[in-house]
Every structure is written in C-alpha cells, then in structure tokens.
UniProtKB/TrEMBL annotation:
InterPro entries attached to this UniProt entry: BamD-like, TPR-like_helical_dom_sf, TPR_rpt
Domain of life: Bacteria
A Pfam family recorded for this sequence: YfiO
Protein name: Outer membrane protein assembly factor BamD
Gene for this chain: bamD
Record-linked Gene3D superfamilies: Tetratricopeptide repeat domain (1.25.40.10)
Family annotation (SUPFAM superfamilies): TPR-like (SSF48452)
UniProtKB keywords: Signal, TPR repeat
TPR repeats (start-end): 542-575
SMART domains: TPR
Outer membrane lipoprotein BamD-like domain segment(s): 504-575
PANTHER family tied to this protein: CELL DIVISION CYCLE 16,23,27, CELL DIVISION CYCLE PROTEIN 27 HOMOLOG
Amino acid sequence: RIAECKLNLGDWNAFGKELRKLEKKVKGTYLEPEVYIYEALYYSLNGDLEKANSFLEKTEGFRDYKNSSRTLFLRGIIAYKRGNYREAIKFFEKTDYSFAMLYEARAFALLREPDQSIYVYRRLLSNPENSIDEGIIRFGIVEALFIYGDYSATQIEAEGFLKDFPDHTLTDYVKYMDGVAKYKKGNYDNAIKILLPLTQRDYFEFKDLASYFTGSAKLKTGDIDGAIEYLQRARTGSSVELDEICFLKLAQAYLLKGDISDLEVISSQFASLFEGGKYGGIGYYIKGATNLLQEEREDAIESFLYIVDNYPSSIFRFPAAAYLIYTYLSSGKTEKAISFSNTIVEDLTSSSNIWAGWALLVRAEALYRKGEISKAENIYLHIKQNFKDRLLLGHAKCGLGWCFLSEKRYNEAHNVLHEVANLYSDTTLLIQSHYGLGIVYFNSGNYKEAFKEFAALAKTFHGHSIEPWALLYKGLSLYALKAYGDAVKTWEYVVSNFGNTEAAEEAAYRAADTYNKAAEYDKSIALLNWLLDHFPSGKRAARAQLLLAQNYFNKKEYDTAIQEYAKFLVTFPESEL
C-alpha cells in the first residue's frame, strides 16, 4: 500500500524502491504476481523494456493473471514503446481500461490514421466511466491531426482547446502545434504571434523548435534580421538535425540580406562540418552564392562546378547545377550553359527533385536564346508533365508561350500567356506574360490591344528594366495605328530617359526614320548623330549612318552627303546595305 501511495503521489523513484523491497518478501504469497505486474509497469514506463517483459512473463505464469486486462494492457504498452503500434492496438482493444483506449488512440495517431484515432478519443469523451482528464483527450485529437498533416483541422481543434483550457498543463504544446500549423498554411504573422512567447519559456521542451519556426516565419515576411536572431536562438542546445537545418536557413537569410561577411563564416563552418554525404559541398555552395551576390561570376562558376563534379550524392548537386547554368547564361555564355547542361541532362530529366526542374528551366532558356526553339519547347513540356511546384510550372508555361510566339502559333501563345497573366502574381511572370501578350497582339495586327498591353506594362512597372522596351513597343503600336506624332514622342521619351539601353537605340532610329519621312531632316539628323555617338557598333548603326547621309542628300547638302556616304563605306564595308 505504501508503494501504491508513492505511485499515486507521482514519486516514481520511491515507487520503484518500495517494489524492490517487496520483491523478495512476497515469494509464495498472493502478493507475488501483484508485485511482478507493478514491476512490469514500472520498468515499461521507465523505458527498460527487457526487464518489463521479464516481470510480465513472471506475472503470466500465474493462471488468473495470464489474460487479465492489466496484463494485456502492459503487453500493449511494451509493444507501443517498441514502436509496434499495430500489435499494441490489438492488446489495447482487448482491455476495458480508459488508459488503454488513450494509448490505442495515440497509436493510431502515430500510424497517421487520424480518423481511427479521433474515433477512439471521441469514445473516451462520451464514456461516463472515463476518469481521464478531458484536456488530455482533446490534446490527443489536436496531436493526431497535426501528425497527419491536416493543418487546417489542427488549427480548428487547437483554437477550441485553447478557448476551453487556457491554463492546462498541455496548453503550450497545443499553442506550438497551432503556430506550426499556421506557418504551414502560410499564415506567417499569426504563426509568429503564437510561437514567439514559447521561445521565451525555458522549461518548454519545444522551445528551440518554436524559435526555428519563428525565424522561418520572419524570413517569409521579409524580417531578415528577426529571422537571423531566432534561427541563432534555435541552434542553442538544439539537436544536430535542427542545427543543420538552422544553418541552411541562416545561409538563406544572410544571402537575402546581402551580408557577405557572415555568409563567408557560415560557408567555412559548413565546409568543415559536412565534407561529404548528404550535405557534401555545402560550403562551396554558399561560397558560390556569395560570389554570385557580389557579381564575381567566374568564382561562382568554379564553386558550383566543383560541387557537380565532386559530390554526386549531395542534396546541393542539382541546386548547384541550376545556378551554374544560370550563371553561364547571365554572363552571356549561352553555348557554355548548353554544353554543361548536356553533360547532366539525363540526370535532370530522370529526377523529380524540384532543383532538377529549375536546372531544366534554365537549360530551356539557353536553348531558346540560341534559337533551338523546338528543343526548348520539349523541355518546357517535360516540366509541365513531371513537376508540381506552382512557380516552376508558371515559368515553364510562360517559356512555352514564348516558344509558340517564336513559331508564329499566336493563338496557342495567347492562350498560355493569358493563363499565366491571370493566375500568377509573381513580378517576373507578370512582366514576361504581359510583354509576350503585347507582342502576340502586335504581330497579329491587333495594334489597339497591343497598345493597351504595352502602355499598361510601362505604367505598372515604372522604373523596371522592362519599361523602355514596353515604351518602344507602345510607340510601334501607335505608329501602326498612324498616330505618328504620339509614336515619335514616345520614342523620344525613351531616348531621353533610358539612353543607355538597347531599346533607346531602336527608339532613336524609329523616331529619326519617321522625321525623315515627314521631311523634318534636322530633327532626324540630331537623333541619328546621337545614336551613332552612343551605339557606334549597335544593331542600327549601319542603317543610321546610311539614313544620315540620305537626310543630307534630301536637304541638297551634297558635299556633306558625300562625306557621310563615304563614311558608311569605310565604317561598314561588309554591310549588305
């Protein structure tokens, strides 16, 4: 009885000591199996399953105890502790204990069978003889949904629990699950609001995880400094696995912040911690990302190429490949981007890894720029059929639309680009889709719709690099609509405000040509001289030089015209003009 009192008081160690005192004294008495079954309970809940099983076998040697509810319950506990949840459920179902039902429900939860789990929990709640605290049962329902990953239902049950049991001993655990569920559903501000107080609780066993998700949520909201603070906190006293994940998130945060010095520190730490295996090459990966951030493209190429060549089993191989192709492409090395991607294309096309998808996407862009449209189109179609990431699919669809546009399949191009424009809010996709739609309209002869697209694009993305190109096409649309004055004004605006862009070269030539046709030769000459000063080797330079000579010829300034024609012959001897 003294032992039972110690058990009921929750003094686990004292309970064990009393049992050991009794063990030798009760031999041959009616208390012998009672002590054995309590010993089995003590050791099973204490984690020593071998001793628990030994005492339970002794208990089962007594006829009246062999298939008793208590023995079956303990058999279930031992199976449960060993992770044999199906076996445990079979034993629990044969008993009439409330606690057996509690363990049965949690076993179903751990098997990711929430419907079965919640069904047992609900039976417990409706049982008038149930002695288990309602808060524990309600906690179990939240946990079952959380383990399964039904984060919408988790939030509903968690909010109900927190309303009914604001001061329960399990309240912080429910808050944690509610906060993580909100994070998983993209409700980052509310996730932070719930999780932040848990990061301050020294006694809370999930304190480090709460810090990790708080930091991750802050990263999603753009609070980079806050993200770094809480990710650093999460590393304090955390497990090796969480420490590794925090390292990755911190690298992302420093990269977004542009904090080169801390990125370099993280990079060197990674390089020493993870020399091979799953995280192999991570130091080189972060170094490459840092190089890219500083526009040190050659160094970035070297780092990414080293990973691809030397870490075949690393999770960073495909991300490095994607960035390598991108770096080649953004450096104007289209042939290099294609030739490198040729070496790993089989690995990329046979993988469902999202980074393989991004690498394929950049490969398709390189092929498109080289003019190999059908090959690019096939890659975009492969991505559409084999990947599910929404943003990746958006880029693949947009690329497909531009392929159709290049092939003059205007109806198909319109349908795909229109879908992207309506479904996505990503800035890059909005620009690419609307710009493409404008060109579809323009090339199809629908100049009014083209004008609307380009005018809206220039206004919406004022200050973006697309603005001068949108204005250039806006002018072309106006010209096609015979609004020549407005077209010239638009092109002159591009020349005045975006003079260092290729769009300005084209705009200057178009305006000069229009002035020439209107016999306003001096205005034409001024624009052509500007063009030749700023773009002496540009795409329009030869035509600009020839048009300049023609302006002087039309003005009957023949000596100057001769000089300009002669300059053309000397400067552009290979021109077809």
